[in-house]
Amino acid sequence: MTEDGPGIQAAVEGELALLDPHTGRSPGAVEALLHPDFQEFGASGRHWDRAGIIALLTGTTDAGDRPVVTTGMRGVRLAPDLVHLVYDTELDGRRAHRSSLWRRTDGVWRLYFHQATPFGASAG
After folding, report:
1. How far apart are CA 17 and CA 29, in angstroms?
2. How many angstroms separate the CA atoms of 124 and 119, rounded?
3. Dihedral sign computed on CA atoms, order 40, 42, 51, 86
4. Which of 40, 44, 56, 121 could form a disulfide with 48 if both were Cys (CB 3.0 to 4.6 A apart)?
5. Is there a domain that residue 114 lies in?
6. Tell me, what CATH number does 109's domain have?
7. Pairing mode, if any, of strands 108-119 and 34-41?
8. What letter does residue 28 receive in the DSSP assignment?
């Protein structure tokens, strides 16, 4: 089920901004999009906290301008201040199912939790 509304739209815009390599080069931009209690389970299986993912994203110099291809992005509002997004990505032949929770705190939507699960061509 996909819903519409300002919370879903804010989450989608934030998610796409984080996938943009230009955003990742700006620590301030990344910090503004991540909730203070952010946590991630990456496609590598590694657990990331906010400081770690900011360092990773802003310290990456080989990302260039390669776009991450997203498909099937859809969102559901789970509570007044909580949105769940799911979608798939592909970059350089690597594919992942992705799930994100966006939480509104003090009127601002920020990424609270993210998980990426790699999958191959035969997985769906």
Report:
1. 9
2. 8
3. negative
4. 40
5. yes
6. 3.10.450.50
7. parallel
8. H
Distance CA 90, CA 69 (A): 5
Residues 6+ apart with CB under 8 A from 115: 40, 41, 98, 99, 100
Separation between Cα atoms, residue 81 and residue 94, nearest integer Å: 32
Decide if 124 is inside a domain.
no
pLDDT per position as a tens digit, 51-107: 999 998 888 665 556 778 999 999 999 999 999 999 999 988 899 999 999 999 999
b/e sequence 62-95, b meaning 16+ C-beta within 10 Å:
eeeeeebebeebebebeeeebbbbebbbeeeeeb
**Number of structural domains, the chain?**
1
Q: Is residue 1 part of a domain?
A: no
Instruction: Give the domain extent around 30.
Output: 6-119
Q: Which amino acid is at 35?
A: H
- pLDDT tens for 21-30 read 888 788 999 9
